[in-house]
Design brief:
This protein is of the alpha/beta class. It has one domain: TIM Barrel (Alpha-Beta Barrel), CATH 3.20.20.150. It is about 40% helix and about 15% strand. The chain contains eleven helices and ten strands. It has an eight-stranded parallel barrel with strand order 1-2-3-4-5-6-7-10, surrounded by six helices. Helix 1 links the parallel strand 1 and strand 2. The longest helix has 23 residues. The chain starts with 5 loop residues before the first strand and ends in a 5-residue tail after the last helix.
């Protein structure tokens, strides 16, 4: 049976601030619906918007959160634990870089940060269940990203050992998601150990093809790695349970290519407003519809050269115009 992609939804994390309407759940939902969105994807690291532990442990509180969103005319698309997921499995080389993702009491203590993050992911599984959600997004963490280029060659077996460790940390988490009936979607993303199809395949092998190990599909990260982002859908459509709509340019020059030469955020090959980059969204939406993807199309702000509020409104309209109505 044909299905229609749901949307547009918006990930609110990049808009959160200390001033209204961006400092509380009710007002930011009112802002989002007025800009043309049908759902919000919620970060789980700011208790002003959702107390993750409380929503995991209290169906009553979960219903209150859902009620606030629904009263403004929106749905919750998914919960995000990207920042917590980063800390589940992080190489010591990145300890300082990602220290701010954890509460102050856990910083500069890699073991404590990882244990905290693992519990956060488990809370998010139960919280998603209490909110009647069927998918959640996270990052895999980075035990091996520092070895991504094949020079010098890794000692024999090192990569396999790292993915075994990755599986040891994630398999129990995936089991909790399975118990809760929720798909855990890894955003396939550079600087994460799961950054392309090959690394996702390796991870699946080590978690024994776990049914809840799924994908958040974001073509931006594939374009900037020179991957075939349409063929990725053909290969992994059964695992794609979330869709993030972001655009980018890939403009290699005589000075830089995929790695951008440590350029500033908006220089080189960087994110662009929807429709102004190189990504063929018409083909992406068509192919996802072909495979009956029935999840949300979620906008995530990254392009910083344009007014963020104007970009949000513009992006809602862009996504609406891409969605193919099922017959």
């Amino acid at each position: 049976m044909a299905t229609t992609i749901k949307g547009p939804a918006i990930f609110i994390a990049q808009f959160i601030g200390n001033d209204a309407p961006f400092n509380n759940l009710k007002d930011i939902c009112n802002w989002a619906v007025n800009y043309g969105y049908n759902a919000v994807q919620l970060p789980t690291n700011d208790a002003r918007f959702v107390d993750l532990k409380k929503v995991a442990e209290s169906k009553t509180y979960a219903d209150e959160i859902k009620g606030i969103v629904n009263q403004e005319g929106l749905e919750i698309s998914e919960l995000s634990t990207r920042l917590q997921g980063q800390l589940v499995a992080d190489n010591p080389a990145f300890d300082e870089l990602f220290d701010g993702f954890a509460p102050k009491g856990f910083r500069k203590n890699p073991k404590a940060k990882s244990q905290w993050a693992i519990q956060q992911l488990k809370y998010a599984a139960q919280a998603s269940k209490n909110l009647n959600l069927n998918a959640s997004v996270t990052f895999s963490g980075s035990l091996m990203w520092h070895t991504v280029y094949p020079f010098s060659q890794c000692p024999s077996g090192l990569v396999d050992e790292a993915f075994k460790e990755l599986a040891i940390r994630w398999k129990p988490i995936l089991d909790v998601y399975d118990e809760c009936g929720v798909d855990l979607c890894y955003e396939i993303h550079p600087r994460e150990d799961l950054h392309d199809g090959a690394t996702f395949d390796r991870f699946l092998e080590h978690v024994h093809q776990h049914p809840r190990a799924c994908v958040l599909y974001n073509p931006l990260h594939f374009l900037l790695q020179c991957m075939d982002y349409l063929e990725f859908i053909d290969i992994y459509h059964e695992r794609i349970k979330m869709f993030q709509v972001e655009d980018a340019d890939f403009n290699p020059t005589g000075k830089h290519g995929a790695y951008d030469g440590f350029s500033n955020w908006n220089d080189g090959n960087r994110f662009r407003s929807l429709g102004s980059g190189h990504i063929d969204f018409r083909s992406i939406f068509s192919k996802l519809a072909q495979y009956n993807y029935d999840g949300w199309a979620v906008y995530k702000l990254e392009f910083i050269s344009k007014c963020s509020e104007y970009g949000a409104k513009e992006s809602a309209n862009f996504i609406k115009n891409q969605i193919i109505k099922a017959i």
